[in-house]
Amino acid sequence: MQGQEKTEITGLFVFHLAMSAAPPASMFDTVPGYEGTLAGGGGGYLPPPMPTQLILGQRCIDFSLLCNRIPTISEDRARVALRAYVSSKCCYSSGPVDEGVITSMETFNTYRYRLETFTESRTSEWSNEPYTAQTVDAGVQPAPGPWQIATKPPTFFQDQKQDIKVPYTSSVKNCHKCLGMGRGPCTACAGAGNKECSPCRGTGHNQTDDRCIHCSGRGRENCSSCKGQGNCECATCRGKRQLLVFINVSVKWTTEKDNFVAQQSSGLKIENLESVTGKQLFQDTQYMLYPVFGFPDVSVAQASDRFLKEHQAKYAQTSRVLQQRQTIELIPITKVNYMWKGKSYVYFVYGNEFEVNAEDYPATCCCSVM
Ligand SMILES: [Zn+2]
Ligand SMILES: [Zn+2]
Ligand SMILES: [Zn+2]
């Protein structure tokens, strides 16, 4: 496993050198624990040490009390929701809301299971900055391993990023870009110090054949970027001639999420439920979670088991799992059947927000009222 990763990283390294001429590999010291660290991004991830705790088992909760409360809405509430929906559409007429008669209402509540895994991952890369008498400490002590560097972790489930200069990896090198000169050819004029006069486009005269006042007929003007010198301060070392070269470890905290919505037969598409919240029945937050067990809807328990295995396989190899959170929500869905002008129609009211979906609404254009 370890050997394979190294080969892969070495392959990337060769590729990187072929793509950009600078900086050369000779610029970087070998730092134990950071072999294969690249310059300029694309550094390999650093596999975390194995967790010391391994938790096995299942969590058994009595869900029967939680799930027995089935929320329903009144006809008035269903009508208010439809009215709000219709008034949010600029062209819909309220005729069906005012005159329509609700014939039946059916409840199709469903469950949403969500698993969130809060991870920390670390990558390393060689970085540099202009040398301005910073501390130079390479070799003073062995560098701490990438996972030994202390960080200030954010609150769980709040994504964040932090860059850390690895102690005992900083050394001073001549700037590879300007070869230690502190200046380089001006890119605006390719080092010439002057360029084509823009008002006369290099002809030396204007449209009426008079001499160009701007360049006095020379056809060229001084380059403003380098003030005619042909060279500029080196952007890499900002003219300091030397660079502080060090390993940067980039720490990223990320919340990985997966949602599962149990099947329901109302006819409302599951995608519609993404925008609403439900009533929270259960939430469990721990370092490593057990799958929920004993939930009345078997598909929810299966989703919990599956997501936990998937998250373990996906994230535990490349990052460190700091915390997991699983939530079960009950999402209310009411199917409302109503009659208007002798025809029957359907709409749905769903979520804590009383969102409405009314695909067959019969008055979607103002003129259809007549
Ligand atoms: Zn000119
Ligand atoms: Zn120039
Ligand atoms: Zn330079």
Task: Give structural notes.
InterPro entries: SSUH2_homolog (IPR052789). This is Protein SSUH2-like protein. It comes from Triplophysa tibetana. By secondary structure, this protein is of the alpha+beta class. The protein has a domain at about 60-115 and about 255-370. The chain contains five helices and 17 strands. The protein has helices at about 1-20, 65, 75-90, 95-100, 300-315, and strands at about 40, 60, 100-105, 110-130, 160-165, 170-175, 185, 195, 220, 230-235, 240-260, 280-285, 290-295, 320-330, 335-340, 345-350, 355. Strands 1, 4, 5, 6, 11, 12 and 14 form a seven-stranded mixed beta sheet that branches. The chain has a four-stranded antiparallel beta sheet with strand order 3-15-16-17. A hairpin with a 2-residue loop joins strand 15 and strand 16. The chain is flat. The model is unreliable at about 1-20 (pLDDT under 50). The structure holds zinc ion (3 copies). One zinc ion binds next to loops.
